[in-house]
Each structure stands twice: as structure tokens, then as C-alpha cells.
Amino acid sequence: MAELLAVLLTIIAASTPLLLAATGELVVERSGVLNLGVEGMMVMGAVCGFAAASATGSPAVGVLGAAGAGIVMAGLFGFLTQTLLTNQVATGLALTLFGLGASGLIGEPYTGLPGVKVRPIDIPGVSDVPFLGPLLFGHDILVYISFALVAGVAWVFARTRLGLIIRAVGVNHDSAHALGFNVVAIRYGCILFGGACAGLAGGYLSLVYTPQWIENMSAGRGWIALALVVFATWVPLRVLLGAYLFGAVWIMGLYAQGLGVNIAPQFLAALPYLVTIAALVLISRNRALAKVNTPTCIGQAFVADR
Amino acid sequence: MAVLSPLLAVGLTGIVGAALFAAQGISPVLGLYIYFIEPVTTLWSLEELVVKSAPLVLIGVGLAISFRANVWNIGAEGQLTIGALAGSALPILAHEWQSPSVLGAMLVLGALGGAAYAAIPAWLRNRFGVNEILTSLMLVYVAQLCLDWLVRGPWRDPQGYNFPQSVAFEGWQLLPTLGDGRLHLGAGLALLAVVAAFLFLSRTLRGFEIVVSGQAPRAGAFAGFSRARMVWFCFLLSGALAGIAGLAEVAGPSEHLQPIVSPGYGFTAIIVAFLGRLNPVGVLFAGVLLGISYLGGEAAQVELALSGKTAQVFQGTLLFFILACDTLILYRLRWVGTARGGDGD
Amino acid sequence: MKKLTWMVALLAGLVAGQASAADTLKIGFVYVGPIGDHGWTYQHDQGRLALEKALGAKVETVYVEKVAEGPDAERAITRLARQGAGLIFTTSFGFMEPTLKAAKKFPKVMFEHATGYKRSKNVATYSARFYEGRYVIGQIAARMSKSGVAGYIASFPIPEVVRGINAFMLGAQSINPDFKLKIVWVSSWFDPGKEADAAKVLIGQGADIITQHTDSTAPLQIADEKGALAFGQASDMKKFAPNTQLTAIVNNWAPYYLARTKAALEGKWGSSDTWDGMATGMVKMAAYENMPGDVAKMAAETEAKIRSGALKPFTGPIYKQDGSVAVGPGKSLDDGTLLGMNWYVKGIDDKLPQ
Hints:
The complex is a heterotrimer. Chain B is an all-alpha fold. Helix content of chain B is about 70%, strand content about 0%. In chain B, helix 1 packs antiparallel against helix 13 (about 310-330), helix 5 runs antiparallel to helix 6 (about 130-150) and helix 7 packs antiparallel against helix 12. The two termini of chain B are about 20 Å apart. Chain C has 2 domains: about 15-130, Rossmann fold, CATH 3.40.50.2300; about 130-250 and about 285-340, Rossmann fold (3-Layer(aba) Sandwich), CATH 3.40.50. Chain C is built from 11 helices and 14 strands. The N and C termini of chain C lie far apart (about 60 Å).
């Protein structure tokens, strides 16, 4: 029982950064913008979060700093793609490149320093309930934020006018514009939101997961998050499934090694990627259902016609 | 404007770079010199520049064609790896085969390997409608792990004390080089690819299909251009080119197979393709420019004790500015009077 | 004006190419990782700094970090040689072929390649007997573990890592013959996220001692969080987990670097193969902490015995996992066998990935 609990807790920790980043990117893509710069925003969030926490000694400031860094990077992306109408794919890649380099530069004085950790929330009494206690409670705030975010996003898209507007902008921005919605402003908002989430994901890495700053700390998680959004066919709750599926397969691979299972470690390491592809193939079999939520305008620049 | 814009971008990057250098206490002029001018001043450096840029250009050309048709092959790195693997099978498994034909066979196998690996996302896209960005990207990691397993396991050098390295390629199994330097056939192949791609896009029907398919998909559909065939073609072509580039790295400068065959060429080539505005000749220039920035970054580390991360910041900034300056070409800026509720400018 | 002179001097240096053994010896270092990894590369750089401190104006050091193994490496090494370096240290196995190739082009430059096995007239190799340290921490682990199970976070199944695992196990078995080991391969030398995950999984499976052959401080931090004990790797990682680090195996390259540089300065340098350990100070143990006094005493004694040569970790009888005898009682495994080690000792249940 204790072992199962330990595994579940490890999976939760591994999946949280993916969930945070993917949820944000889902909102961005739903509004019709493809931001490939998640990796760059994430790693900038990691370094700025760490720097902010180290400078002030407060993990809360660190979390805010991480989100803030993500917003700034996303703002840069937004300015280039929405105002200057640059190619979104290329701009996103440039953002990643820039983010990786800039984070390394910013992080130089912070390398090799032990970090300030975000403390888990300990609710006395409740956290002590065997098994369920530590499983449901006793996590740090970012884990709860990740769940709240995905639930909130799902609710906004399904039940609110704002969600409807965002979806409309993503499906056909010309029609949305004709209806009087400010497409650019809505997209900016979504882009900044996505940036904040990616920054939070990065902050999670440097403030909770491994409390330190290392170059390229995100280690490709931004790309996984992007893939997860596609995997989820832009449905928020499926992002939750995808993130946890990926995290679970990854951790179980390590677990199997610990048990002494005689499978090549490279194969076990490849499993999460293969499983994601397989799952997506299964989901895509119903073409009509898969296409329902696709933001048709994704990646196209919006030029307002009078 | 079309020529001015990239120059403006380079100029702006230079200004940012100068500021970066000044902030780190280094003379901006010296910094810019070491970064951009010095790599082209010596023969050795020029040679190394070609060696570094060749795979970028080779892969970039394939990706440019692919991206033009809106087929997003993000997995060139994986196709490169499998191509290197496939081509290396010959020297590793049939080490005694020494004749010009082994080199040809290796190149063919490299191309086939890359193409076959690229066929997976293409098939998944056509058959199941699965987004190719996801599949091609995920397959990159799978390919790298596959290579890792092979090099550490069945394909390691029996005389190598169980270290993860294959036997060294010899004689005809190596790409021919110019003189005794490192300039190898891969460079020639890259140039060939540029020319071929240029002719392809401008002179053939298939090329025309690709250009139209990308710019106006519905028009293309009405004209009878099959989207599915387009996806196959683009993936197979870019996969093959990536595979050749991978094989060229392994049989050229590297001379054996090891766990990591490329420092991210497949991803950098995506940037090269965009920098070159998806035009084969542009890709050539963009590849060289990026190569310069790599070499310059390394030189700066050695001669100025400048941090290696600055190179990446540079590349990102350069790309930003080029994209931003492109706006000047694609759109005309107009001031809109404040009376109107303006947007979009 | 100063800028112009600078530039001219640089150009001249570039065109001239190689260095003469002038008053100042330029020494180049090629690192595979970042200096900030606080592990492998960090320790090499500490060696470089020690050189500067000890030899002052007689040497000028220069380094390139994060050089990918492969074609890029050859260029980086060549660049250093062209810049006038007379002695170049290449600090990763994957630099072996590039070093040899560069050495051919620059016959007057001296090259030192770490952890490799190919030499030439101007290429020497060097490595450290890290496994000696592993034996000591194996003993400590067996004494300190309450569950009798340790977790080992390993990078790649190459002989060096396998040697380390075996030495650790032999050390543990000398105290507790039933000691158990759980091994996880993370397929990377440095990936804090993966290493943290591996540590969590191992602790969850019952290991209460964590050791690693990867370079980040993440496993130590996780052990600290979860109440396990751990060992630092390649450098003293105490400040990341002051209450958890028992000791660390510290790579101390300074004495070797100093010796080789002095030989180069005096014109006495020659190609050689050096595989030193505790005896010459290449392998050191960090302070023994967070353990009872008698365990620390035992560890110090073992360390002293290894240093003096009285105890060799791979002394028989040693049985391989398949039951066969690796070496008989009283005899030690020779260096050749150690160099190519690709089998586990008896007592390890996992199968070695082949």
C-alpha cells in the first residue's frame, strides 16, 4: 500500500508541469494561435522563479516571478505574431531558442545554489488519513493549481460566453471579427494566459521538483506539453488524461527497472512516446469527433479587413 | 525591400549583440568581429563553416519544401538518426566490404532509412488523421533511444572494451574529403539539393502543386492536387534528405556510430528553413548564417571567455528580427487616423 | 587604438597557428558539460583553477564548455590548438577519436584524454579509480541501511559504471552478505528531473540509501525530502543536503594536472596511461557525516587501507552473477578485466542491459 502511494505521488509530481503547460497552450491554440515557444517560456519561468525566490527568500514570490516571466515571453510572442503578423511557427521556435539561451545567461549566477522550496500544504488531521490523506492532501499549491486550472478552463469553454467567443475566434476569425469581437485582444489575452501557465510549469520545476537551477532544466517538457494538446484534440479534460498517462508510463518504466524487470532501459524510456502516439491513433479513429474541437484557423495570421 | 529586410534584421541583431557584449564587459566591436567576421577569415574556419552548415542546408531544403505545403515535419532529427543508423549498418555488419559501391549503398540506405522513418507520421496522418507534429516529434525520441540501444548493445565495437562506440569506418566507407581537411561530400550533396529543389519548385508540376497547396489549399483541391499524396511526398523527401545528412555526419567527420550523432541539426534546420523563407536558395544562405553564429559562438568562448549561452540568444534574436522585418515585405504599413476604430495594422 | 592592436594580435595568432613552448604555456580544456553541473565538469574546472593558482604567470588556461561529443568536438579541440594551446585536456570518453585526429594534425601539441583507452605519441590518457571510493561507500551503506536495500541511479551500462556498481556491492557485502541493490538506468549523465524521479521510485520500493553515478544533486535533494540517506557524486554536494549526505566521492584532478603541466613546462612530457586512485589523491572522500562515530571510523580505516594498497576492492574470491568464479581467493582482478567489465557480481539480482 505504501509503495502504491509512493508511486502515485511520484506520478503526480511528474505530470504536474506537463499539465500546467499543456492547459495554457490549449487555451492559446483554441483561440487559433500556435505557440511553439512553450519550452522557451517554461525554462524562463524556471530561472526567473528561482531567481525571484532566491532573492527574496520567499517561494511565493518565486511562483509569481515564474508566471510573470512566462507572461513577458508570451507578450513578446504576441507582439510579433498579432501586431507584426509574423509566421507563428517560426516565431514560436525563435522564442524557444531565445528562451533557452537567455535563461542560461540569467541563471549563471544561480547555478549550483540550493533552492528555496515551495512547502507542501499540510492540513493537520486530514493529511494523516492513511493512503487517501497524503494522496489527496499534502501537496504543494502548484499541484492544486494545475487541477483547478484544467477544471476552470474546461468550465469556461463549455459554459461561459467568454469560452464561446474564444472558440469562435479560433474557428473562424473573420466571422468573429465581423460580429464585432476584438480578435487581436482576445488572442493576446489567451497568449498571455498560456505564457503564465508555461511559466508556472517552469517554476514548478525549479521550486518544487528539483529545487535548483540547471541550464535547460525543462528538458523537452515544453515539446511534450505541445504534443499533449494535440493528443487531447483540444479538449481540456483530455489534457489531464494525456499528462497523467505520459507521467504514469514514464514512472512505471523506472519502477519496472527498480523491480529488476529485464527489459532494455531504452525501450522503457521510449514507452511514454509510443503510448502517446498509440492513444492518439485510437482517439483519431472517429474523425468527426476528432474534428469537432479543432480550431480551424490555427496558425493563420489574422488581418482585419474593413 | 526584399533584400533590405534581412540586412536590416542582421543590423538590428548586431545592435542587440553589441549591447549584450557591453553588458558583459567586452568591447562590442571586438565581440561582433569575433562572432560574425572572424569565422570567414581563415581557410580552416571556412572549411569548418561548410562542415557545420552542410547538414543544416541539406535538411533545411527538404523541410522548406515540406513546410511550403503545410506539412509540418518536426521530426527531421529522428529521420536523421535512423538514416545514420541504416547507412551505418553496412560498415558495421559487413566491415570488409571495401569498394566505391559500399559508399553508394550507404548513401542509398541512409536516404531509404530516413524516408521509411518519415513514412510513419505520413501514414498515420493519411490513414488516421493523426496530427503529424505530434507523431514526428515523439518519434524523434524513439529514434534516439533506438540508436542508443544499438550502439551500446549489439553494434558496439568488439575491441572497444564495451564502450558505446561502433567500429571505425574505413577506406571506402568514409565520405571522400577535399584535400586532407574535413570538407566532405556532404557539402556537395547539400549544394546539389539546393539546386535540385530550386528547379523542382520553379519548373515542375509537382513543385507547383506544393506551392499552391500551401498558399491556397482549396484551390489546390479543386485543381485535383491530392492532399494525401502531397503529405507522402513531402515526408518521404524531407525524410530522405535528413537521412542522407545523418549518414554524412557519421561517415564524414565522425567516422563511426556513437550514441549521439547530431547536436540538434534536425531542429535547427527548421529555423534555417524559415530563415530562408522556405526558398531553397534562401535556405543555403540561412544555413551558412546560422553556421557562422555557431562557429562565432565557439570562438567567442575561447577568445573572449564569453558565455556559450550568448550564441543561442543571438540566434533567437536574429530569427526574431528577421521575422519582424519580414512584415515590412509582406504588408504595407499605413497610419490610420484616430477617428477610426483601427485594428490589424 | 587598443582595439585595433587587439584585433591585429588575434589575427596574427590565428594565422600563425601553433604555439611554441614559450614562457607562458597555454593550456586548453574541453568540457562535455557545463561548469555549473556541480559534478563531473565542475571538478575538472576546479583542477584548472588549481593550476592557475599554483603556477600563476607560467600558464594561461582557456576552456570551452558544453562541447557535444562528435564532429563538433574535433573542431573545438582544433580551435584550441590553433589558438596556441600547447597542452590540451579533453575530459570525456566521447572525445577520444576527435582528440586522436587533432593530435595527428598538431604533432607538437600535447593532449591528455580522460577515461579513454587509445593513445598516440602525443596523446596520453588518464582516469581515476573511482571504484575505490565506491567500495568505501558500499561499506557505509551496509552499516547505515535499516532495510538492507540500497538504490543505485546509474547512467549508462559502460564498464566504468558497472565497475562502480560491483565495487559498491562488494563493499556492502563485506559488511552484510545479504545486502540488496536496486538499479535504475536513466540513460543520461546529467538530468536532474529524471534522476529525481529515479530516486523517488527507488525510495518508494524500499531503498533507504541512495547512491548515483549521475552528475546532478537532485537525488540527494529527494533523499533529503523523503528521509533517506545518500552519497554525493564527483564533488562534495553537502550544501544541497546537509543532513543527508553521508560522504561523497570527490574527483580531485588537481594533483594530476599539476604534475603533467610541470612535466610539460620542463620538457619532460611523454604519452602515458595513468589510472590512479586514492593513493595519489585523485580520488578523495568528503567528510564522513550524518553517521555514528564507529561507522565513520570504519570508513576512514578502509579508506586508509585502500590508499596504502593494503586493500584492493576487487580481491577474490569474487563470483560472477552466473555463479562462475571471476577471481580466486587472494588474487585481484587485473586492470584489463576491470577496464572491460561487463558483468555483475553475485548478489545483484538485476540483469545487466547488454
